[in-house]
Write a structure and sequence with these properties.
The protein is an all-alpha fold. It has helices at residues 10-33, 38-72, 79-90. The N and C termini lie far apart (108 Å).
Length: 103
């Protein structure tokens, strides 16, 4: 003959899902909107794209500046470049030149 030691209740079968579902909901919500979630990932990607564009612009500017420095370096000085620099920094002009001021 068998004896029952425990009563089988409905709550016993619902205990594991009752604990699991709130934990699952917590982790899903943080995966969506948490610090490293999907929304934050999209914001980081947009920030990365804008900074990549800025880097490309700065590299172009750097290339232009390096080219100008190369033209001014020893041994390759060009007379036109030296003349342009001297006139712009000293605000000088020859008597027979016409000066057009730009705003």
């Amino acid at each position: 003959m068998r004896t029952r030691q425990k009563r089988k209740t409905l709550f016993r079968h619902l205990l594991v899902p009752a604990i699991t579902l709130p934990c699952l909901a917590y982790f899903v919500s943080h995966a969506q909107s948490g610090r490293y979630g999907v929304e934050a990932g999209l914001a980081m990607k947009a920030d990365f794209d804008s900074k990549t564009r800025l880097l490309a612009e700065l590299e172009l500017q750097r290339g232009d500046l390096e080219q100008r420095v190369r033209l001014l370096s020893d041994g390759t000085l060009e007379r036109d470049m030296i003349d342009e620099r001297a006139r712009s920094s000293l605000n000088l002009a020859n008597e027979d030149e016409i000066i057009i001021l730009q705003r």
